[in-house]
Amino acid sequence: MQTAHHSALAAKHAVLDRQIAAETQRPLPDATTIAALKKQKLLIKEELTQIQ
Known about the structure:
Blueprint: H1 4-25, H2 31-51
Helix pairs in contact: 1-2
């Protein structure tokens, strides 16, 4: 059973995924921004796996 916390984390993970995709599609993607977004996404993924 998914908790509200798990659902919120999954939603944040999806938002970060879309932000990364949008940034990489820009004519001059910012590598620093992409790296920061990927780090946030990884932290959320790790938390999701811990609470499952």
